[in-house]
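ok trying this again, last paste got cut off
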Amino acid sequence: MIADIPQGSLTQKKPYAITRGKVIFDFSLMYCDTPSKLLQSELFTMIITGFIQRIETKQSKVFTFLTENVPLRRRESLTKYMTDLFRLLASHTAAEIVIMNSQYYDVLSDKEYLLEFIEELYSYWRRFERFMYIEAPKRSHYTKQSIHHAQFIKLHVELKTIVLETYRHVRENLMGGNPRVYRQLPAGVNMGILIEKIDWKYPEGLSFVKDVPFIRLAVMESPLILYPKMNKRKGAFKEIFDLKEDMLLLFPEQWMCYPAKIGTLTAFIFFHRDFISQGLSLCNLFEIADYEDIEDKSPDIMLFVGLKNIDVSGETVFYEDAKTGILIGMIRYAEDIDYFGYFKKMPLTLHNIVMLERGRLPLHGAMTSLTVKSGVNAGVVIVGDSGAGKSETLEALRTLADEHIRDLKFVFDDMGSLNFDADNGISGYGTEIGAFVRLDDLQPGYAYAEMDRSIFMNPDKTNARLIIPITTYYDITRGYKVDIVLYANNYEQVDETHPVIEFFDSPQKALAVFRDGARYAKGTTDEKGIVNTYFANPFGAPQRREAHEEIAIRYFNKMFDLGIKVGQIRTRLGVEGFGQEGPRAAAMALFDVIKGLNRP
């Protein structure tokens, strides 16, 4: 564990914060382009101070060595003494330093202890989740120009280079030689962002959010490995009908906004800096909204993560503003919500409510449009709650693509909607460009094959997760014809009376299974065993059940009128020993069904 260090706020006076194992700083106000400037920076002083406090608490051998070999008059300011020594080592050898200043003779007498100090300090820095930002002048349109994007990316690379250069110079000058192996570690920051304050139309009474900056560009050092406090989501998203102004009080300098395109909707996702690692991980899940979607516009959805003034039961609630129609989600500041599922599921819940209000049928599931090698094309929707096997079955399809598939497009991986199209058919639309999937349920080796663009979360724990881009914004919004709709049954074994894929002969039978929403909970939430969720969708459907029921009946009747095949697919993801084999068998059965459609 990394202890918090005395911190400031994200202001001009203190352009950095060190909090909850994270380092966040304004690089424009702490710019370093040489080892000397880096070692003189206020942030370096805070890092080395925290590290010395850590080894003092542990009473490590390195700390004992320092206290015994640092001159008595310098022991009270050990941070400054070591900083001064590092500045000398950045440009001089240990032998040269001793000649210049004899006070360093004792501490340089045993280089192995000092080398251990350097290596542990370097690791201490790298164990933080590290984020830098640069804020553009308001209304400058700075972040719209590609030349500035290129400059920002260059700064991101230069910071990594200068940290590595400083570490290597200090180490090599201490030891008097070069190492035989150089490791290009991610020594700078995990992510860098360009932020900008943009004028937009906020709801009445919420003027204090106008100064929260928007994220306009993100640069990620892949693979990114994060360790949030929690590894599962719990509770339900409840609607409240009275929004008090003080519920949304916040200090803009401690907040940022990720402007997300969720399908065709625009969502402003505000988050407290303590949850920055989760907030910035959204870049692998939702497209960043264009400047034109923000300036002088109102969003469809607003979400606040990390509020400290909510006085309601439950930590996750939402409110519909009657005047603007904006849905406002609120998540209380708590260690329990330090999990990416809250950042993903709350905005999708609000998306689904908007879809119902527009006459669409939201679905908790996955969809792909694929063409097998015989030329037959099909749009396949698999509906299921968390851990039902919907994404895993489509992932199995992807791994079999070379052998069976000519073309494969992912439309949605977790949440989408159906709409009647211009040809009187039904088309599917997505919400996300990425997927948030369990590592255990992926095909062996897949996560490592894709790690160069992935975000890993708690890879050493139960319900370890991967966030990875899987499709484009164009593909999730263009609309794909639906030919097959299946419910993901993850708990029943396959036998002669229970085939892998079973189709219903009436909309009433289909609706009964979808309404029942049965699945075996795999521990991805706080549920266990066989559970039932209305339409396998706790995200909007129960909150607007009456409207959902009416729309669902209309769509299911239309599916049967159009000859769309509706049934259930037994993924067996919840059956012991079938975590890999079940989705693969389901994918193969699905291929057989598609090839039997007998049409292009």
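PB: full thing came through this time. Residues 1-12 have pLDDT under 50 and may be disordered.
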